[in-house]
Design goal:
Blueprint: E1 19-20, E2 27-35, E3 49-57, E4 63-72, E5 84-89, E6 95-98, H1 100-105, E7 113-114, E8 117-124, E9 132-141, E10 157-158, E11 164-169, E12 172-176, E13 184-186, E14 194-198, E15 218-220, E16 227-228, E17 239-241, H2 253-257, E18 273-278, E19 293-303, E20 306-309, E21 321-324, E22 329-337, E23 347-351, H3 355-362, E24 372-377, E25 380-381, E26 387-393, E27 403-407, E28 415-418, E29 420-423, E30 426-431, E31 441-448, E32 452-456, E33 465-466, E34 468-469, E35 471-478, E36 487-490, E37 497-500, E38 522-525, E39 537-542, E40 553-562, E41 570-576, E42 584-589, E43 597-601, H4 603-608, E44 618-625, E45 632-645, E46 650-651, E47 653-655, E48 668-673, E49 682-687, E50 694-700, E51 703-707, E52 715-718, E53 723-724, E54 730-731, E55 738-741, E56 761-772, E57 775-787
Parallel strand pairs: 25-34
Antiparallel strand pairs: 1-22, 2-9, 3-8, 4-7, 4-9, 5-6, 5-8, 10-19, 11-12, 11-14, 12-13, 13-17, 14-15, 16-17, 18-19, 18-21, 19-20, 20-23, 21-22, 22-23, 24-26, 26-30, 27-28, 27-31, 29-30, 31-32, 31-33, 35-45, 36-39, 37-38, 38-45, 39-44, 40-43, 40-45, 41-42, 41-44, 46-48, 47-57, 48-49, 49-55, ...
Length: 789
C-alpha cells in the first residue's frame, strides 16, 4: 500500500501540515452571447412545439456547461403548459429539460454536458405567449494535467457505491445520508462552491479530462439547505446540504440512488478498519481521474471529534464518507491528508459526534427540513371555485398516506382527501369550492419511511395554511422592477438597502439565490458579492406614501439570515398612518427565515394596533445589527396593499359561523342588489346545501347565537322577534342552492308584515332540512346583516 504525500497526517500534533483534499477540475469561462428573440408556437393544440433552436459549440473542449443571462418562458408550469428548454449533447445524446421553476433551481445554468457542442431548443404550447432565451457564457473543461503518484503503490480500486457523488465545480466528494429528506454530508471546506452533484460518474478521458454522467444523474444544490462551518481544521470540518429533484426525471437523489448511509459514532480503534470511497485525482491510469474509487485501511485514532486511518485517498476525496468497514455504517467525514513517502502518518476526518454537525442535522434547512418541500396553492379563490394544492417531497412516502386535510372555517372538524402522485416526488390534492364568508384552512400529512408522519406546515392542524375567498382589490403593488419611490437610510457601516437582481455569490451562503416573487428584482441589504451583511447599526427601507383610505391588508415577502438568533438582531416592520410623522411597530422577525416567506398584516391586526385607514400610509423595514458582531442579511419583495371582497356585487356583512351539513360544507348565504330601501332590490342566495333539500329564510332586526336551535344541527343567528318566510318554501334541487327575491315592503314579523325603512338594520338567515347517517335533522346557514339607506 502506498502512503500518499498529499493525504497523510502524521499525528494530531502535526495537524497544521494536514491538507484539505479539494481538486477543482481545469476549466475556463468563455463568453457566448446569443439572443433567440421573442418566439411563440404558431400551431394549434396542447402539445409543445419547437419555437427556436440553436447550437452552442466550443471546438476541442472536453465538456461544457451553459449559463443564461435571462430566460423568459411562456405558459404556466403548474398548469402543465409551461414552455421548456431542451438541451442535448451532440457527443452522446444526453438530454436535460428545464422549465421556469427548475431554471431558478439551477440558477440559470445547465448540467454538465460531454463534448464540444450542445443543441438548445425552446419548446412551447400554442396560445401561451412568447418565450426568449439570452445566453451569457460557457464553462468548458480543459485537458487534465498529469499527476505523479505518491508512494510506490496506489491501492484504490474502482467502485460503484450509489450513495457517493462528485461535487462540482469545487472538486470534492459528497454522500447521501439516511436522514428524513435524503440529504448529503461533505467537508466544510468544500461548501463554498458546490453547484452540481453528480452520480454514476463514467471513466474519465484518456487525458484525464472529466466525462460527465447524463443530466438525469446530475442535481442542483439547494442553497437554502446548506449548513457548515467552512472548515476549521482537523476534527472540525463539516457541511450538510440538500439538492433539488432532477429537472428531467423529477426524482430526488435518494429516490434515484436509494437510501443513504446510516450514521453512528466511531468505534474503538482495536480491530476496526475504515473504508474511504470518493472521487480523488489519479493518473495511473488517467481514466480513473476523479472517478469513484475505494480503499480499506486500519483505524488508528478515535478521539473527541477526530478519526484517523491509514487509508489511501487523494485530492478530490475531501468530503468522502468515513465508513466503518465491519458494519458498513458511516462514522465521519474525510477532510484532510498528509501521509509521507516513508509510511508514517495517517489521514483524518471529522467524527459524526461533532457537536456542530449534530446541531445542523437536528435543525435541517431548505429541502432537508422535513419530507415536504414547497406547498403550491392559490392564496385567493373565487367563491364556489374548487382549487388544487400540490407539493414536492424529499424522501420516500408510504403508499396511500399522503393526505390533504381541510375545513371551511376555524373551529370546525377537518375533512380529509387522499392526494395523488402524478410524477415521482410530487403530490396533488383537490380543495372544494368555498362560499362567501368562509375562512378555509388546510394542511398536508404523509408517512415517510425514514422519519415517520410529517405535516406541512410543521404545526399541522394547530397552525394550518389559510385560503382567502373572494376578489382582491389592490391599492398599491410593487415588485421592485422599477423605482416607485422607496427611500433608504442607514446608521450602519455596511449592508445598505439596494434594489436589483440578487447576486447570489456561491461563496457567501447567507444571501438569497433569487428574489421572492419571481419577478427578478427585490430589495437586499447590499446586493454585492462577498460579506455584505449589515454591520454596526441599522439600515431602513421606507415605502412611498400609499393610499389605504379604503382599508385593506398589507402584504410582503421577506428574507432573513442571522448567524446569531438571540433576539438582538432582527428585521422589524413599522407602519405609519400619517405619512411617517409617527410609527407603530407591527412585526419583529428575529429568526432566520430559511428562504423567502410571505407575511400579511391584516386589516384587523392594523386596526387593533390603532392604525386607521389613511391616504397617508407608509411602511418601513429596519434591519439591524445590534448585538455581538454577527451576520445579518435581509431582503424585501412583493409589497402590496389591498382589500378582499368576497363578491364584488354583494351587499351587507356576513356574520356567525355555520356548522357543516351532510355535504361536509356549511351552508352559506349572501345578498346581492341594492341597500337602498326605496330600490326594493335584494336577492338572497344560499349555497352548499344537500341536494333536493327544502328550507326557507328567517329574518329579524336583531342578532343572536343559539346553538342547536329547535333541536337542529345548526346555530340560529338572528334574534327576537323572528320572522319566517314560511310561505316561500324552496328546494335546493340538483345544484344545492336556492334564492329568493325579497319584497322590502313585506318583511314578515310575528304579528304582521312590515316595510323596511332607511336607517334600519335587518338580519337574514336560511333554515333547511338534512339527514345524517340516515337520521333526519335540520341546519342553518351563516347570516347576513344589511343596513338600509
Amino acid at each position: 500500500m502506498r502512503t500518499p504525500t498529499l493525504i497523510a497526517l502524521c499525528t494530531l500534533a502535526l495537524a497544521a501540515d494536514a491538507q484539505a483534499q479539494v481538486f477543482t477540475p481545469p476549466a475556463a469561462n468563455v463568453p457566448h452571447a446569443h439572443d433567440t428573440g421573442w418566439a411563440s408556437a404558431a400551431g394549434a393544440g396542447t402539445q409543445r412545439e419547437v419555437v427556436h433552436q440553436f447550437t452552442v459549440r466550443q471546438n476541442g473542449v472536453e465538456w461544457m456547461r451553459l449559463y443564461f443571462a435571462d430566460v423568459a418562458l411562456a405558459g404556466d408550469v403548474l398548469a402543465g403548459n409551461g414552455a421548456q428548454l431542451r438541451l442535448t449533447s451532440h457527443l452522446d445524446g444526453a438530454e436535460q429539460l428545464l422549465d421556469a421553476l427548475t431554471l431558478q433551481q439551477w440558477q440559470r445554468s445547465s448540467a454538465y454536458f460531454n463534448g464540444d457542442a450542445v443543441e438548445v431548443e425552446v419548446l412551447a404550447v400554442p396560445g401561451t405567449g412568447a418565450s426568449r432565451v439570452l445566453m451569457r457564457e460557457l464553462e468548458v473543461g480543459l485537458p487534465m494535467p498529469q499527476f505523479s503518484q505518491c508512494g510506490p503503490t496506489d491501492d484504490r480500486l474502482p467502485s460503484s457505491d450509489p450513495r457517493s457523488a462528485r461535487l462540482l465545480p469545487i472538486g470534492c466528494t459528497g454522500w447521501l445520508i439516511a436522514d428524513c429528506a435524503g440529504c448529503f454530508l461533505t467537508a466544510g471546506h468544500c461548501q463554498g462552491n458546490i453547484q452540481v452533484i453528480q452520480f454514476n460518474v463514467p471513466p474519465s478521458s484518456a487525458s484525464g479530462g472529466l466525462v460527465n454522467p447524463p443530466p438525469a444523474d446530475q442535481y442542483a444544490l439547494d442553497p437554502a439547505s446548506l449548513q457548515g462551518n467552512g472548515g476549521q481544521g482537523v476534527g472540525n470540518d463539516w457541511a450538510y446540504f440538500g439538492a433539488f429533484a432532477n429537472s428531467t426525471t423529477g426524482l430526488t437523489p435518494s429516490q434515484a440512488q436509494g437510501p443513504g448511509f446510516v450514521l453512528v459514532a466511531p468505534p474503538p480503534v482495536a480491530g476496526n478498519d475504515i473504508r474511504i470511497t470518493g472521487f480523488g485525482v489519479d493518473s495511473s491510469p488517467s481514466t480513473r481521474n476523479q472517478t469513484q474509487q475505494t480503499h480499506v485501511g486500519p483505524l488508528v485514532t478515535s478521539s473527541n471529534t477526530t478519526v484517523q486511518y491509514v487509508t489511501d485517498t487523494e485530492g478530490g476525496n475531501s468530503g468522502s464518507p468515513v465508513i466503518w468497514e465491519q458494519t458498513g455504517q458511516a462514522v465521519g467525514i474525510h477532510t484532510h491528508g498528509g501521509c509521507t513517502t516513508s509510511g508514517t502518518g495517517q489521514n483524518s476526518g471529522t467524527a459524526f459526534t461533532h457537536p456542530g454537525l449534530q446541531a445542523g442535522l437536528a435543525s435541517p434547512l431548505g429541502v432537508c427540513a422535513g419530507g415536504f418541500g414547497d406547498v403550491v396553492a392559490a392564496s385567493l379563490v373565487a367563491p364556489s371555485t374548487p382549487s388544487q394544492v400540490s407539493t414536492t417531497v424529499a424522501g420516500s412516502v408510504v403508499s396511500g398516506t399522503a393526505t390533504l386535510h381541510w375545513r371551511s372555517a376555524p373551529g370546525q372538524l377537518f375533512m380529509s382527501v387522499a392526494m395523488t402522485s402524478p410524477s415521482p416526488g410530487v403530490f396533488v390534492g383537490d380543495l372544494p369550492g368555498f362560499a362567501c364568508g368562509d375562512s378555509p384552512e388546510y394542511y398536508l400529512s404523509a408517512q415517510f419511511t425514514s422519519c415517520g408522519t410529517l405535516t406541512a406546515p410543521a404545526a399541522g392542524p394547530n397552525g394550518p395554511f389559510g385560503l382567502g375567498v373572494g376578489v382582491a382589490t389592490v391599492a398599491f403593488e410593487d415588485n421592485f422592477e422599477a423605482n416607485l419611490g422607496w427611500t433608504t437610510a442607514s446608521t450602519a457601516t455596511s449592508g445598505q438597502w439596494e434594489r436589483g437582481v440578487p447576486v447570489n455569490d456561491p461563496s457567501w451562503a447567507y444571501d438569497p439565490a433569487t428574489d421572492g416573487d419571481g419577478s427578478g428584482s427585490c430589495y437586499l441589504t447590499q446586493n454585492a458579492a462577498g460579506n455584505t451583511d449589515v454591520d454596526n447599526g441599522t439600515v431602513t427601507l421606507t415605502s412611498p406614501i400609499v393610499d389605504r383610505s379604503a382599508g385593506g391588508d398589507i402584504s410582503y415577502w421577506y428574507y432573513l439570515e442571522l448567524s446569531i438568533s438571540n433576539g438582538d438582531d432582527a428585521l422589524d416592520v413599522d407602519v405609519s398612518g400619517n405619512g411617517g410623522v409617527s410609527w407603530t411597530p407591527l412585526r419583529s422577525h428575529t429568526a432566520s427565515s430559511g428562504g423567502w416567506l410571505r407575511v400579511t398584516l391584516t386589516s384587523a391586526e392594523l386596526a387593533n394596533a390603532g392604525i386607521a385607514p389613511s391616504a397617508q400610509t407608509r411602511v418601513r423595514f429596519l434591519a439591524y445589527d445590534a448585538g455581538t458582531q454577527s451576520i445579518v442579511e435581509a431582503g424585501v419583495d412583493g409589497f402590496s396593499v389591498g382589500s378582499l371582497t368576497c363578491d364584488p356585487t354583494a351587499i351587507g356583512t356576513t356574520y356567525c359561523t355555520a356548522n357543516a351539513n351532510s355535504t361536509g360544507l356549511p351552508g352559506s348565504i349572501r345578498a346581492n342588489g341594492s341597500a337602498l330601501a326605496a330600490a326594493n332590490d335584494v336577492l338572497l342566495t344560499v349555497e352548499d346545501l344537500p341536494l333536493n333539500s327544502v328550507g326557507y329564510f328567517v329574518v329579524s332586526p336583531s342578532q343572536a347565537f343559539v346553538p342547536n336551535a329547535g333541536g337542529s344541527a345548526g346555530n340560529l343567528c338572528v334574534g327576537i322577534p323572528v320572522g319566517r318566510y314560511a310561505g316561500n318554501v324552496l328546494s335546493s334541487g340538483a345544484t344545492g342552492s336556492f334564492a329568493l327575491q325579497l319584497d322590502l315592503t313585506q318583511i314578515p314579523q310575528p304579528n304582521a308584515n312590515v316595510a323596511v325603512q332607511p336607517g334600519e338594520t335587518w338580519n337574514f338567515q336560511a333554515w333547511y332540512r338534512d339527514a345524517v347517517l340516515g337520521f333526519p335533522t335540520s341546519n342553518f346557514t351563516n347570516a347576513t346583516s344589511l343596513v338600509f339607506q
